[in-house]
Amino acid sequence: MSAGALVLTNFGSEEWTAELYGSLSVASELAEMVKNRGQAIRMAYILWRLSGRCDAFLDRTHDIMEGRIQPVMKPEQKEFTTERAQETIHSLRQLAIVLSGVYDDARRKRLTNNSLLGGPLSRLRISAEEMLDIADWLDQIIEPAGVEGVFARAQGERERGEVFDLSHI
């Protein structure tokens, strides 16, 4: 089974969905706290908790992609369809947008310079970028025609001699 199919199988589980929406809930709570710019200690606790959840999610995803662990397909798990894949991609992008928004709001409020908050805020920004990368990768797995079209066009350009040396561009 390909890495993409394994990752999609993992993303189809109810456990994964619960974890994703739990993280989205914590991120939304944090976004509200950043807007009010209060309670730095409580905010730091929530940031560390959310950062840990995101790290665990990304580590598990990378482990599946690299074949270190095999996701277990439960009998009651629903079949992973294209529609569920699109929902998964949308949810990943939504979480990444909320995480990026938290970071941007915190940066505008100068909370990234706070010794308690700076580290986990930076980690959230990195996690958001990784989630967007995974969402884009999953989107390409589901819709391979776009990627195949790019390679076909490049092959055609090469055959026609429309290749340029990068040093001249």
Total of DSSP H or I helical runs spanning 4+ residues: 6
Helix content: over 70%
Tell me the β content.
Answer: under 5%
Stretches where pLDDT is under 50 for at least 5 consecutive residues are none
Mean pLDDT: 78
> Structural class, from helix and strand content?
mainly alpha
Largest sheet: none
User: How many domains, in number, for the residues?
Assistant: 1
Global morphology = globular
Helix and strand sequence: HHHHHH
The overall strand count is 0
Cα-to-Cα separation, first versus last residue = 41 Å
Describe this protein with a few key phrases.
169 residues; mainly alpha; 75% helix; globular
Task: Explain what the structure shows.
The model has no long low-confidence stretch (mean pLDDT 78). It is globular and about 65 Å long. The protein has one domain. 22% of the residues are buried. It has 169 residues and is mainly α. It is built from 6 helices and no strands.
Brief sketch in words of this structure:
This protein is mostly helical and 169 residues long. It has helices at 3-11, 14-36, 40-65, 82-108, 118-142, 144-159.
